[in-house]
Amino acid sequence: MNELNLKFGFRDNFLEGVRQPEELEQFVKTCGQQAEIDAQNLRHKEINDLIRDTAKRQIKHIILRNVCGHRYIGTRLSNSEGETVKIDVYNYAGNDLGVFLDGHHINVYGNAQDGVGNTMNSGEIVVHGKAADVAAMSMRGGKVFIRDNVGYRAAIHMKEYKDKVPVLVIGGTAQDFFGEYMAGGKVILLGLNLKEGEMHRANYIGTGMHGGVIYLRGNVKDSQLGKEVGIRPLDEEDKEIVEKYVKEYCSHFNCDPGEILNSEFKKLLPVSSRPYGKIYAY
Amino acid sequence: MIDNRKIESERFLPDKDIENCGLFGVMNTSGTRFGGEMAINAIKNMKVRGNGLGGGFAIYGLYPQYKDYYALHVMYENKNDEAKKNAEQFLHENFYVVYDEEIPTNPEVDVFCPPLVWRYFITPHKKEINGVSEDEYVISRVMDMNKYMQDVYVFSSGKDMGVFKGVGFPEEIADYFMLDKLYEGHIWTVHSRFPTNTPGWWGGAHPFSILDWTVVHNGEISSYGTNRRFLELHNFYCTLYTDTEVMAYAVDLLMRRQKLPIEVVSKIFAPPMWNSIKYMKEREKQLYTTLRMVYAPLLMNGPFTVVIANQEEMIGLTDRIRLRPITAGAKDDFVFLSSEEGAIRYVCPDLELAWTPPGGEPVVARLNSKDHLKSLNKSV
Amino acid sequence: MGKIQVKPEVCIGCHLCEIWCQVAHSKSKNIIKTFLYEKTIPMSRVVVEENLPLTFPMQCRHCQEPDCVSACISGALIKDSASGKVIHDPSKCVGCFSCVMACPYGNIFVNEKTREIVKCDLCEGLDEPYCVSHCPNEALVYVSDD
Amino acid sequence: MRKYDYLIIGNSAAAVGCIEGIRSVDKKSTIAVISEEKHHVYSRALIPYYLEGKIDRDKMNYRPAGFYEQARVSLFINEKVNGIKYEENKVCLSSGEFIEYGKLLLATGGKPIIPPIKGLDKNNVFTFLSMDDVLKIEKALSSAKNAVVLGGGVIGLMAAEVLHKKGLNVHVLELADRVLAPVVDEHVSCIIEKAFNEQGASIHTSNTIQEIHGKENVESITLQDGTSIPCDLLIVGVGVSPRVELAEGTGMEVNRGIVVNKKMQTTVPGVFACGDCASIYDFILGENRPLPLWPNAYAGGRVAAFNMAGIEKEYTWGTSMNSMHFFDLNIINAGLNISYSNSEYEIIHTEDENKKTYRKFVLDKNGVLVGLILAGPIARAGIFLNLMRKNVDVRPFKEELLCENFGYASIPEELRWTLLKDDVILGVV
Amino acid sequence: MYSHLLPEFVVERREDRCIRCRACERQCPNGVHVYDSDLDTMFSLEENCVGCQRCAVICPTNALSVRHHPAEYRKNSSWTRDRFQNLKKQAETGGVVLTGSGNDKSYRIYWDHLVLNASQVTNPSIDPLREPMELKTFIGRKPDTLKINMEDGEPRVESELHPNLELETPIVFSAMSYGAISYRAYKSLARAAKESGTLFNTGEGGLPAEMRAEFGSNAVVQCASGRFGVDKDYLNSAAMLEIKIGQGAKPGIGGHLPGEKVAEHIAVTRMIPRGTDALSPAPQHDIYSIEDLSMLIYALKEATNYEKPVSVKVAAVHNVAAIASGIVRAGADIVAIDGLRGGTGAAPLATRDNVGIPMELALAAVDKRLRDEGIRNKCSILAASGIRCSSDVIKAIALGADAVYIGTAALVAMGCTLCQKCYTGKCAWGICTQDPYLVKRLNPEISTQRLVNLLSGWSHEIKEMLGGMGINAVESLRGNREHLRGIGLQEWELNTLGVKGAGE
What we know:
Chain A is of the alpha/beta class.
């Protein structure tokens, strides 16, 4: 850093002091098809460097220990050969977990922060805990299971495309702007932690929603919904979908699907695929 | 750079700072004092939220031996002795200075252009008060110093508390002031700054303080001009052009002067939408309608998360649509507030509770209370 | 001889090839004179096929094995072995329209009034057929053999 | 003994097609043409136009005067072939001379059919096929007033129109119950009959000559229905039959015409046949038959030429097709002439009496066009013939066929570009 | 509702030249020209005319002229005709007035108040026709110093460089998405960029898969708020990534590509179902502050293995200099600034005409700020909006840009006449439309050539002007404001621009 930059303090906070992968070998323990990485003293880039290098060595199961807020986990893994890697994250995944994720599986044994599955393309993220804001933002494919609650703007601008239909299943409840701008995909909000008679508290659910569907277990007032969504009962096809994903949810988190499925679900659908078609003067 | 800041009042506002950051606060609600390790490590964990252009700490329960005196942390920029002389003369003229010393620093730590930082424990000369409360007296003098004195800037002026801040990553500032070695407190708040403006000025770092109120802040208040002009009506002059300063003055105005509880103040800063008010019960509806009518200029618009603290309380609050993150956590008597949950877990792996309050809903940690759990019920 | 190739993907359906074909076969070869002052406006030898959004011009392909020549009862249509053009001699033509029946592209055009046919002559005597040189979007390309 | 690589007997469309075909691939070999007639190659189809005065004698020439020289063809005119020794590749001329050939094309054409009616040998009875016929008719015209045309086919009707235009009273006699019965349907027959009648030329259907009156010349005739018509000019235009005398009795297969395969080869090696004398492949019927039509003759000659020159090519082009016009009415027909009562085919049509337009298409069970008739506007008719030849299932766009501005744009994308692929540049974007 | 709007244009047809060829009728997407066969006359429905001039250009006899309609409201400096018309339009629809193209208001165009220098006597000017003249420009982050090792007496570069891109000319095509513009227009830009050794920008419409192999190395792919078409392959196929925060024509707002424009191939490219609205939110919902931007910058770098420079594009707004500083500090390699006159396919008129600041001032402020902070070399600056000619380019470079983005200029080269009706989807020039009949009007061969010609013409002119200043490498002009002087500018403007007044 030259004097000028010292004076004005240009600091590359992501890359400054990042070590080369070869300097980090002591953090990786390989055992057959499995590798363990101790993230305790690793930087964001370092952990992804190691994951990538490990995956390149044909190791398909990577366990990350002592993760605490490390970002972008799984992002740099390519999926060119269609081979996917399973990553188990212990403790606490950082922001943008699995951003642009392409086909890989990530399990988080703990909570996750903002931006889980941001712009994810395919694969699966299972969070054994809660997720913070903008979970599954702009997600295009794959599945995300959150055992507990999600923060603000979950499933915002979720999309779908051809055979890619993203799925987000949330065991708990959500905060405001749930499903905002949603353009596709399936979101299931189970509200398992709501007490008897307790409503979901999120406001502005599905504002600007113009595609996809939200299945909601538990109650909401009309005033909690964006004006672009309507409530419909589930038809048989819906029930099958809900059943399928609730069962998957339950298999991830060891709970009983029967009880969940016995309760009443609501389907939230956009009332128009063109919510803003008429606001312009031509 | 400071000279430009000493503008009295302007018809046109110069650019204000825009800064976005990582923040963290930890409080022991039983009042037990503890060292800086948690705060320092937590903010270090969120290093990428800052860019090394500012870091700072506020510590409460800092000077038990001088807790009846206002503790002034004063920075002399460019290590300007002349400024120090002027300032000390001013202090002696206006206060009784019981003790003063240079705040010890670690010369091994390489920080950018460190100023001279001195602390004074003072109390007003009784005769000079003239019906003005001690607090007001102190504030006005501190403001005068900040406004008119070249190369002088008061970091903090509360009792039994202090602010340490500067240019660098917060852990560097902590190292520089040796916070982990020298100090204990029952509240630590810390801020890692990512400004897009005013690099290289120690006064620009957070926390910002007025008396014993401190604010660390993440976000950009789009209503800055409106808020600031309202505060000017109440004789708060903003010299720093930061959102944080506005926030601190607003807290001071509403809580100290006007004695409103934080539960109400938070609803002034981050009121519910008219659309929500419409569906409220009559009493609530009246309350919020009135609050919004009267305190409209203090609506803090745009993204923010703040951690506000005083001797008794540590408060976390976000804007009403929660554009900035906050996570609260608790274990035993400890209450944590943080931009990222990871940071809390990093310093408290066996955390009992972690929750994210909804936008505009304050998390209030109070001495000898469990008030912080109130927000837990409204949160997820 | 050259050949006119058609790029339907860039044909904009303006029909100006038809207009310029008419000009090319007019007395004056001046567009305004042709249409506003000359007594007879020649027929176009190119037609723009239209089925919007599709449009594309068609004119005589000067086939290797021209069916029109086979069908011609009068010898008015011949395949010129030197140039490769399919040439129509109006003085020999009796208007039997056998060529119209035979042309697989429908590119021999009938003037119902005069009972004459016209077809593309690649603008004999001009450097490049007018339809090609005046196409505003280069949807017609003249590919010269040489 | 003279020897030619290629020898052609006959000198009309088929011969020209053959010469031009050979010369397009083979500039060197020797070619000879033996013609019974003494004229430069002329177009029989132009006879009505000549008579009408639309063209002069020169314009009757199918190819320009220097055609043979330019094509370096040895021409034997006014020479009749007496017989052919196929096994020796020799042709014997009436002069007794032998000509040896490499490959032989029989393009002997057809001869007018003369119905077995007594008195058709009188002086003012003419056929309507050859230059000689025309010259005679031309002479007779000056004094004739009342003409009778025997035969309501293409030849007969064209002759009748010319005679009518020349100011003669014209009666057309047709044995069938309508004119042009083999090539057009009832509806179009009716339109044509109406057109003739409106012009004042009488058409008598289901009728023919009962008796011819007069000594050396025909003076009047009595029809089968008893009607008596004055007549000083009688044209016999009932059709032609293939001239197969050079093939008969030689072992060469003859079935009405000389049978050829798709390469125009007869059953005798090295010998080809085409034109009116041959029984050629009809791609609509899928079998051979005489198709005595000008385009078929020329195209057949050309195909024969290629095969004679050793370049394989098949003739799958021919079927019944006519481009006709009577007075102001244009008619084009091709393929099968199927009546509406036939349920084996799907028939679509459109009609506008005021505009005198009629379009009719016959689709077989595969949706392929097998017949069409256009009356009135005939623009771009060739496209339909192309669809027929390419065996295209037109059902997806059959409604479009009926539109007057039908074109390639009306055809579905993929098919369209397949049909036009040689000329259209796709994929520029 | 009966409309009170006055027609905007009058169509004049010279009867002594009109040959009734009806080309105008066929070319007008708005139905202005109508042929009446009974009267053998062409009629003009002027109220439909948008003044695109397609008919006038296509008319083979130059019989047509399209002019502003002379109808006038009572003269009123406050209530101009535009104000009347827009107000009435809203009174009739209750909607937001939309417009296309860039700001057309008469804010000062600083390019036209800046003049360039030339060498006289004291140093020689250079003749670019015969002597070398270099426009090659590298964009991306540069280190402050190079670590050089001497190996056997030969110096060798030790430092690892940040990814940089090499431009043959400092002119880059700015973001125009496939969907907003037609595939052909889009592809023409790509082809021209490739041929000219520069870059094109995908906007946020994705990069069609079939174009990636051929044009990826010339593509700047955007990651914008809608995240359309953004996946790993998309990011990795490109030469450079760009995070679009804002657009000069509409700072602070998002965009809607209406469903009817989302045709099959566009849907595939954007990876959304056909016919659905493509909504681009105003913010990127994972960026609510500068540290979030940093998060996305590094997310993109992570996703592309740190191999590609990342640009951040912002609209020029009041505190753009501070923002730019933040962007650089957040890790961006390139800062793209889009000014007040930047173009758009659709924007609310109120926003387009009133939000943002002119690029010239923004650029000067940003360059100065980054220099003051010592971080100018940490990034390249791409300046966008309102570049109309080569001298604008060269002035932008002298004010501190590394290269410029051109959007409107490129469209004009292809045929655009700035009728500002892009949002109707009925672009008569086949550029800003998906109508299959209209898109054919753009022959990509021709439009590519036009673009290539434009770049080559401008590059020649830039060389001429550089030579005149005695400079033979464009980098010597970058930020070299000594070569600029202001004319007719006030003190504060000169200060902001950092140039002296002419004669000083």
